[in-house]
Each structure stands twice: as C-alpha cells, then as structure tokens.
Design brief:
single chain, mainly alpha
C-alpha cells in the first residue's frame, strides 16, 4: 500500500520504536511507516488502517506492538474475532493485562456477553490501572445491557469514579454511559442530570452528550441553511429549491471521538 512522502516512521512512539530495533534497519523503517498509517487512519478510515496493519503484520508478526496495532485496526473495523486473536497474541508476548478490557469487548462484539462478564470478574482486572478498571466497568455494563439487564448495568456503573468531582480522561464517557443507561431504564430526569454532568466534563468532545441533552430538552437540530434560502419553501431567484425550517433552540455540539470508539461508550 502507498505511503505518503511526509511519513518517515519517526512519528511512532519511542517504546514501539525500541521494539522494532530487533528488526533489520530497512525492515524496521517499513514497519514503522505502516504503523504510522494505522494510527493516522484508524479514526476516519478504519478499513484503510486495517489494510496498513496487515502489511505491518506480514512484515513483523513477532513484534508485540505490531500485533496490538493489528488488533486495534481489526477492532475498529468490527472484525472482532480477528481483533481478539491479535490481542491474545500481543498479550502472550508481553505478559501484560492492559488489553484485557478491549478483549472483553471483543467478546461482546462476537455476541458472547456472558464471556465478557466472566472476564470482568477475573483476577486480571485487579492488575489494571485506574483507567483500565473504568474501561472494564464500561464494558461490563454494556454486556449487562446486551443481556437486557438494565438495572444491573446501572449498578455496575455506580462507583467512586462516577461520584468523584475530579475530571479524569474517562469521566465524560463514564457519566455518559450512566446517563444513557438511566434513560434506557425510563429514568429521564436522572438521565438529564447525568448527561449535563457529562457535558461539563467532556473537554475534548469525546461524546455527543450535548446533543443528547438537547434532545431531552426538546431542541431540534437542523442542517445549516444556504445563504440564498428563505423561509417560504419556494425557489430563489436562481431557481434553487428553498426549504422552510423552524429552529426551536441552539445548543453547543459536544461532538464525538472512541478512537477507536469502544462498544462500552454508548451501549
């Protein structure tokens, strides 16, 4: 696959670069460039990222960082069986537990929420850092919802991290998931409160909490109007079609990321 001229391979994380030092120099450079392309495309073009990850995998399948990148590219493309296999391979190589939550989410993607819950109760969870434990809680709550256990999903999300006033990288997503679960359970007033809290903590637009809050408040969003349109529903002087639109209110758009968007975000 073609590599843009501005990609040198030096853009990769220093830890990944160190892993690639086990390869011949030219091969390491080629692998690095493909990994850069995976990172560059995974949000906007998951299939493109997947293609580059397969190239890197053919070149260096014994490098843990390559297996992990291939796993995330497959995950972003909803190829959950393939992603799970790559994550397992990476974990065998490193012995770490960091991939445990996303592996559990792959089980969800494969329609096995019971397996996800088994993993949520495994000893590996206690070895995760705080961010990993919150991610595991999000995934487990999503599995509960997959099984129709809304009340259990709500309880799963109730935690010191949810109640904390401190804003961490995971705070907006955790509050959003809690609000969404409350809304699914018919607890609209509580859901509105937590969507509002998610908006307050969503500093990088990782969720669409502001849109969800606006919907609960009855605000209707419409497409931006062309400058030559009016409210008559007729055509302008140039013969362009004109739509009449009524705007009930305006709310800032919080936008949305996962990144790779994880299944636990909004389920």
């Amino acid at each position: 696959m073609p590599i843009p001229e501005d990609v040198t391979g030096d853009e990769i994380d220093k830890d990944v670069r160190q892993e690639l030092q086990s390869l011949p120099k030219t091969l390491a450079e080629d692998v690095a460039k493909n990994l850069v392309m995976v990172a560059r495309l995974i949000d906007e073009d998951p299939e493109g990222a997947y293609g580059y990850s397969r190239v890197a995998l053919r070149l260096a399948s014994r490098v843990a960082a390559v297996r992990e990148a291939a796993g995330f590219a497959a995950y972003a493309s909803q190829k959950y069986s393939e992603a799970l296999a790559e994550f397992r391979a990476a974990r065998r190589m490193t012995g770490g537990v960091e991939l445990w939550p996303v592996m559990a989410d792959c089980e969800r993607g494969l329609g096995r929420p019971e397996k996800t819950l088994d993993m949520a109760g495994a000893p590996e969870v206690h070895k995760l850092d705080k961010a990993g434990q919150v991610e595991m809680r999000l995934v487990a709550a999503g599995a509960r919802r997959d099984m129709g256990q809304l009340d259990a999903a709500i309880v799963t999300l109730q935690s010191p991290e949810l109640a904390s006033h401190s804003v961490q990288p995971w705070t907006a997503r955790l509050r959003y998931a809690y609000a969404d679960a409350l809304l699914a359970a018919g607890r609209k007033d509580e859901a509105r409160e937590w969507f509002a809290k998610a908006v307050e903590s969503d500093r990088d637009g990782s969720t669409d909490a502001s849109d969800r809050l606006a919907e609960l408040d009855g605000v209707e969003f419409v497409d931006a109007l062309d400058e030559d349109k009016d409210e008559d529903g007729n055509e302008d002087e140039d013969g362009h079609e004109i739509d009449g639109v009524e705007i009930d209110g305006v709310e800032d758009d919080g936008g949305q990321d996962d990144g790779v968007v994880r299944r636990g975000d909004d389920d």
